[in-house]
Amino acid sequence: MTNAIDRNAVHHMKWWGWGVDGVGFHHEDKPGFAPFVKFAVGLDLGTAVRTGEPSFDDLNVPLSNATEEFTAELASIVGAENVTTDDMARVVHTYGKSIRDLIRVRSNTILRSPDVVIYPADEAEVQQIVDAAVAANAVIIPFGGGSNIAGSLEPIPGEARTIVSLDLGRLRAVIDIDTDSGLARIQAGSQGPDLEEQLNKQGWTIGHFPDSFTHSTVGGWVATRSSGMQSDKYGDIANIARGMRVVRPGGVLVLRPLPSTSSGPSVREMILGSEGKLGVITEVTVQVHRIPEKRDVYAYFFPNWKSGIAAMQAISESDATPSITRISDSRETSFSLATSKNRKGVSKFMAESALPGIMKAKGWNLDDICLSFIGFEGSVSHAKHQKSLVDDIVKKHGGMGVGSGPGILYDQKKFDTPYLRDFLLDMGAAGDVSETAAPWSKLVGVHEAVYAAARGAYEQLGNDGWIMSHMSHSYHSGACLYFTFAFTFGDDPIAEYNLVKNAIQQAFVDNHATISHHHGVGLEHSPWLTQDISEEGVKIMTGLFESADPAQNFNPGKILPK
Amino acid sequence: MTNAIDRNAVHHMKWWGWGVDGVGFHHEDKPGFAPFVKFAVGLDLGTAVRTGEPSFDDLNVPLSNATEEFTAELASIVGAENVTTDDMARVVHTYGKSIRDLIRVRSNTILRSPDVVIYPADEAEVQQIVDAAVAANAVIIPFGGGSNIAGSLEPIPGEARTIVSLDLGRLRAVIDIDTDSGLARIQAGSQGPDLEEQLNKQGWTIGHFPDSFTHSTVGGWVATRSSGMQSDKYGDIANIARGMRVVRPGGVLVLRPLPSTSSGPSVREMILGSEGKLGVITEVTVQVHRIPEKRDVYAYFFPNWKSGIAAMQAISESDATPSITRISDSRETSFSLATSKNRKGVSKFMAESALPGIMKAKGWNLDDICLSFIGFEGSVSHAKHQKSLVDDIVKKHGGMGVGSGPGILYDQKKFDTPYLRDFLLDMGAAGDVSETAAPWSKLVGVHEAVYAAARGAYEQLGNDGWIMSHMSHSYHSGACLYFTFAFTFGDDPIAEYNLVKNAIQQAFVDNHATISHHHGVGLEHSPWLTQDISEEGVKIMTGLFESADPAQNFNPGKILPK
């Protein structure tokens, strides 16, 4: 069908952190950053000792339990060069990239790793692998880009069976584009930049840009029910992914691309968010759009969080159809100002322009101001018209526009945040994210409750801690709230992290919000699933998984609460 | 929670046909209608003998097998006045309103009817009924408005267990409206006009207007994954229904209203389209919208089907966001012209205006012209702007606008078609509908294949037959095609109907289209489910149903192929 990609051409992130070797966060050109970190988490970057890159040789990697016979059988399917039990490959496929994952891998805490990693060339090989693994009662964990932060990828400690990490990296072609329908068939292992480049060459875009875009795959997006930064226009992956091919024991589930269907409970929606538990996604037919003539991101300021959220709600209710609606709370706004490069972006406005004076004259408290980014895409006249509709609403809610300059910077650095997290970890502070969604009427309450929960957790730790938030992904009836938190850790960073993370997740479900808007469930969010979808919901989902995978060969232990 | 509605205030359609007593189709004011029927299906309305209203007393209604003990148990839950085994109630709850249903009930063909009909007042009573029925190993078939045409409601002949028709008609309140979020909690038995009136009084609309609107319920919409005429703007019920409460044995499934969530495979999407097989829907939290300032439906003509479909596709790909995009093929266009009231609507244009002359001058063949309706909603300026975007696209595709006059008529008579079907049945012609969805690139092919299939079936019958179609419900990657077919029947109308219907359904799945876009599966479409979602899809769905309902107490025999 397509030319097989060489296994060595499959890119993985570095085993001990986010992204590729040689790229990292630095703050030499961000004079406000170090004071901000000192203020936020009490960490003095001037005196903190930076942990060096960990040594792979020091790692205790669990031995592979794969029998020679089983490995040979796998090799007979894909060729010996595409099966491996070597330690580096198995470590790379052990965890995703949550802060828990990074802490564990750096602290030599690998209780269980895959026993064998395999790189099939095509769907037929995936089918043979699945059939062989199920026949041998092995465990299969599909692996895309490895960027998951919900614990969806890791093997369960205590799993006695042989665990196969099935890496889809060689399946990365855009197979064809149905230009009349705006539908592209894409192999599941295709990573964001790769597939977008293949589409762009023919004048198309997928319009799906999650934070993980640079390292995640279309199969992973489907498996975790991902959302992208421009989902207001293009939809979440649940809207974008129309057709699917999923390899299951004995056969391929084929869901043809359909704009909509009432053929019973949606099997398509069962695969979405299934995290490998219903089979191995090999191909997704996604909606694609012609690259828009115009794409602008404008920045706005609001006097405070409540007025900003009210404006976002009013936009979602209006006739306007922006591609991005995003607002940072006052703390995330102060973070953005501190981390901007000197004399660029929003900090330039604040430092050099008349803006602070204007804000003060309006009676704004500069500690409360909230920075918003709103995007417009389409024809030149459409983008202009949408902006005028939005500008009116912003004005009515007491906000003010500050042009497209900061938006351009937002666009350029939107995929860089994970590198910052690695840098802070090197310096002694742990940070990660929790995100949720709730109806508009609940958002301010969720925000307050999460802040109170985090404060409570930090007090318990007796430690300085930071939390900030933005709202993104608007829908008619609600939106996503995205929280970033960080603290300087002590002796047991995982336990300390769990205390904060758990407090935040509990605040979500206690306040009408869901356990995750677009990161999936994995192990990280499963303890709250029952409180999210009720006992009967868990029963129905359990029945789905158990009937589809009675011997629990597919990514066992994930999603469902223990 | 709400004041209980009296059982006698629950409206049902007449037992032998669509709608309410005393309302029917007549053609005295439509001079073109009789000649059209003669031309289309060879039926002479001047000489045909109209079947009178059937006599209920002549019906052989199967005896109820409900034991006195069981009926008494049910009566102890809801009160004796809200349980009945009387024949009329059981017949009313036996079938939906497909042509097969009408033919069977009129020809005294009731092989199995519910044994007992029950009208709970609230969710707590539904729970008690469900628990009692499951304990007694009885069958539960939830009943909303009874308008289903996919065979989703009828008991399976040969079912030896006691069958309970659980009528939600007393649960019909709009409980509350979250005005900040645009979300309304509505009891599942609420019928379209009733709930829309309750919403309208407070300035809101649900925006969901299926053809069955006047007699269907919000619970039924969810259970069959319904779409409405304005779904281009408001979404299908799958988009509109955010929260749900579903009574299951031993407890209530509670899905809180969320704008989006990645909490594993969507249980919400499992309830959507489940046709009562996963429990009894008692409440749905739906998106509601403020009644728009402006709502217009404009009519357009295209020289032929291909140019019209191309224009609809171009609109869906453009920045324009109309609320309705609909185009009739040339045959449905000729039907619309024939059935218009004299000197009104589109026929007026054709009969009295310069339009036919203009079309001919453009080189159009009047036999090929296609009538389109496109709707615009929102602020006055938004509706105007959308129309200008659409007008440009129509022009580019060779079409022409003819104003809003015909659109107003479309709006007024949009819910009347089922009455016409009953009239034709009285006169000796059977008609019904089949609808589907497919990617844009496949629509013209599906249309041609369905026509060929219907022609083949009519030839086999040796009978005159008619088929016509329109496209509606546009999505980014495709649209719905809706076919209406009719023929004068002979000795075995059901067998003749099956021949035509089966040919059409087979043409759907053979040509990249689904078995149903918005009517559900029931018994009518289940034979093609495997060809639609593949064997593995059916296996997954079967596992879902069997694990959630191991003794098959909930609407057994539906959706899954035999």
Automatic annotation (TrEMBL), chains A, B:
Tell me the Gene Ontology biological-process terms attached to this UniProt entry: lipid biosynthetic process
Question: What's the domain of life for this entry?
Answer: Bacteria
User: Could you confirm whether the keyword Oxidoreductase appears in this record?
Assistant: yes
Gene3D superfamilies named among the record's database cross-references: 3.30.300.330, 3.30.465.10, 3.30.70.3450, Uridine Diphospho-n-acetylenolpyruvylglucosamine Reductase, domain 2
What cofactor does this one take? Answer: FAD
Binding residues for substrate: 421
FAD-binding PCMH-type domain residues: 110-291
Question: What PROSITE patterns does the record point to?
Answer: FAD_PCMH
Catalytic residues, per the record, are 482 (proton donor/acceptor)
Q: Which UniProt keywords apply?
A: FAD, Flavoprotein, Oxidoreductase
List the InterPro entries.
Alkyl-DHAP_Synthase (IPR025650), FAD-bd_oxidored_4_C (IPR004113), FAD-bd_PCMH (IPR016166), FAD-bd_PCMH-like_sf (IPR036318), FAD-bd_PCMH_sub1 (IPR016167), FAD-bd_PCMH_sub2 (IPR016169), FAD-linked_Oxase-like_C (IPR016164), Oxid_FAD_bind_N (IPR006094)
> Which is an annotated Pfam family here?
FAD-oxidase_C
- Sites marked Important for enzyme activity: 326
- Give binding positions for FAD: 211-217, 224-227, 275-281
Instruction: State the protein's name.
Output: Alkyldihydroxyacetonephosphate synthase
Q: Which organism is it from?
A: Salinibacterium xinjiangense
